[in-house]
Amino acid sequence: MKILILNGSPRKNGTVATLLKAVAEPITNKHETEWIDVCKLDMKFCTACMACRDKGTCVLPEDDAHRVGQKIQQADALVIGTPTHWGNMCAPLKLLFDRNVPVFMGESPKGMPEPRQKGKRAVIVTACTTPWPFNFIFPESRGAIRAVKEVLHYGGYKLVGTITKPGTKKTNEISSSLMAKAERLGKKLIP
Ligand SMILES: Cc1cc2nc3c(=O)[nH]c(=O)nc-3n(C[C@H](O)[C@H](O)[C@H](O)COP(=O)(O)O)c2cc1C
After folding, report:
1. Cα(5)–Cα(75) distance, integer angstroms
2. pTM over 0.90
3. Distance CA 76, CA 70 (A)
4. From the alpha carbon of 165, which atom of ligand 1 is closest?
5. What was the pLDDT predicted at 161?
6. Which is the most buried residue in 26, 65, 70, 134, by most CB within 10 A?
7. Whose CA is closest to 118, among 171, 155, 86?
8. Low pLDDT (below 70) residues in the chain
9. In 3-state terms, what secondary structure has residue 58?
10. pLDDT tens profile 10-65
11. CATH code of residue 163
């Protein structure tokens, strides 16, 4: 199986990257995994021309958004990591998804959304400085998770779980139970 890991964090050894590595750890030797640092990609902004809805692909000159879109199509499962930025997913990841709407969903003749990655599995990882329970009471990490879930939902993915590390301003230390959860979810990516 092919598993694509999309790391939205620019921080190489940050919390999101550490948790993503923990998700990947139990599957790396048995399956084909590919890690992409989304903030290093060369991508133009979506111009909202909506032409992709009919053409099935972005009509902008080819860049990394097209290339990673193909990898998303080819992957059997996704691991998506995003730091919480303004209670949302980070900008590079959002741009990648904006540029790849037709990879995730089509539209029926009546304009109803049609999932294009139905049944594929996914895990979401996030981190934020807001401590528990305020990261959840207010839409901090909850907002980031909700935003990524929206994309996965319209793609038809089966979300096997989410991993959140709140309170990173106070401590970056990741508990052994959270690391264990990451590894558990990594294993659950494989049916
Ligand atoms: C531009 C920006 C916006 C942020 N917005 C939020 C936020 O809305 N809520 C929050 O709790 N933390 C916010 N943070 C803090 C990050 O989510 C936090 O530092 C996180 O641990 C980063 O993870 P990383 O080190 O793995 O990239 C923001 C950080 C940046 C740089």
Report:
1. 10
2. yes
3. 12
4. 21
5. 98
6. 65
7. 155
8. none
9. coil
10. 999 999 999 999 999 999 989 999 999 999 999 999 999 999 999 999 999 999 99
11. 3.40.50.360
State how far the alpha carbon of 136 is from the alpha carbons of 88, 104, 108, in Å.
12, 27, 35
Quick check: CB of 9 below 6 Å from ligand 1? yes
Measured CA distances, 68 to 118, 123, 174, 181 (Å): 18, 18, 30, 27
What's the 128 CA to ligand 1 centre distance in angstroms? 5
Rounded Cα distance between 16 and 19, Å, is: 5
Side chain identity at residue 114, one-letter code: E
Residues 141 and 89: their CA atoms lie apart, in Å, by 9
Tokens of 59: 């009509």
8 Å CB contact between 30 and 104: no
Cβ atoms within 10 Å, residue 180: 11
How many domains does the chain divide into? 1
> Encoding tokens for residue 73?
């199509």
Closest ligand 1 atom, residue 86 Cα: 8
Q: What is the pLDDT of residue 15?
A: 98
pLDDT of residue 191: 87
Give the range of the structural domain holding residue 34, as residue numbers without chain letter. 2-188
Q: What does the DSSP 8-state code read for residue 11?
A: -
What span, in angstroms and rounded, lies between the C-alpha atoms of 134 and 137?
Answer: 5
Ligand 1: which residue has its CA nearest to atom 4? 85
Phi, psi of 37 (to 5 degrees): -85, 100
